[in-house]
């Protein structure tokens, strides 16, 4: 299936219940044959409204970190392990909820489809949800951060770092940010 066909199919996906409350499916964006695919967790509030991945606060931090690491975001295929926003309502606010294994598994065909079409050389997982989706539920980003591994059943290599939201929440934000930029520099140096 082409990326356009995958996107259309994902937009009609009822594999789990998340489509019921989300505004729309947020599919991946970027060059169809990008050398690098970055995988996040799921769209956030702003992504859900815009229909584009990484346009909210985490996306802004990612943009800044990529620019500082000398990476042009437009060359990267950006997507998420889960394509619908999962949240609970608190007053007018929609609070992010981490997707569960069932939702990650339900969404997996779309991520696998994107991998098969884009055929990236390198996959960069942003955070535990993306890393577990592709490397198995027992994978720990804390233990294997920055390691270059082989992506199971594909020719790509894969590495995991923290999620940009974790940098935004970190106690020592400057240090967390520097380490995140360093991880991106190291990952791109393997190309
Ligand atoms: N966080 C993610 O993991 N993905 C997005 O698209 C936005 C925020």
UniProtKB/TrEMBL annotation:
GO terms, biological process: DNA repair
Residue span, Uracil-DNA glycosylase-like domain: 27-185
Keywords of this entry: 4Fe-4S, DNA damage, DNA repair, Hydrolase, Iron, Iron-sulfur, Metal-binding
Acyltransferase as UniProt keyword: no
Highest rank taxon of the organism: Bacteria
InterPro entries: UDG_Type-4/5 (IPR051536), Ura-DNA_glyco_family4 (IPR005273), Uracil-DNA_glycosylase-like (IPR005122), Uracil-DNA_glycosylase-like_sf (IPR036895)
Listed GO MF terms: 4 iron, 4 sulfur cluster binding; deaminated base DNA N-glycosylase activity; metal ion binding
Protein family according to the UniProt entry: Belongs to the uracil-DNA glycosylase (UDG) superfamily. Type 4 (UDGa) family.
Name of protein: Type-4 uracil-DNA glycosylase
Organism for this UniProt entry: Kibdelosporangium phytohabitans
């Amino acid at each position: 299936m082409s990326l356009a066909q995958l996107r259309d199919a994902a937009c009609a996906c009822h594999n789990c219940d998340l489509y019921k409350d989300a505004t729309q499916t947020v599919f991946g964006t970027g060059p169809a044959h990008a050398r690098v695919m970055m995988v996040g967790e799921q769209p956030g509030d702003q992504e859900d409204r815009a229909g584009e991945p990484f346009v909210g606060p985490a996306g802004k931090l990612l943009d800044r970190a990529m620019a500082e690491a000398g990476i042009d975001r437009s060359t990267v295929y950006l997507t998420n392990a889960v394509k619908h926003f999962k949240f609970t309502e608190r007053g007018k606010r929609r609070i992010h909820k981490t997707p569960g294994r069932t939702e990650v598994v339900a969404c997996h065909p779309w991520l696998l489809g994107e991998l098969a079409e884009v055929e990236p050389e390198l996959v960069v997982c942003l955070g535990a949800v993306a890393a577990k989706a592709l490397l198995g539920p027992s994978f720990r980003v804390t233990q294997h951060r920055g390691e270059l591994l082989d992506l199971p059943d594909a020719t790509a290599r894969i590495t995991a770092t923290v999620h940009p939201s974790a940098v935004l929440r970190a106690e020592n934000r400057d240090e967390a940010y520097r380490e995140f930029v360093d991880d991106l520099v190291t990952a791109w140096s393997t190309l």
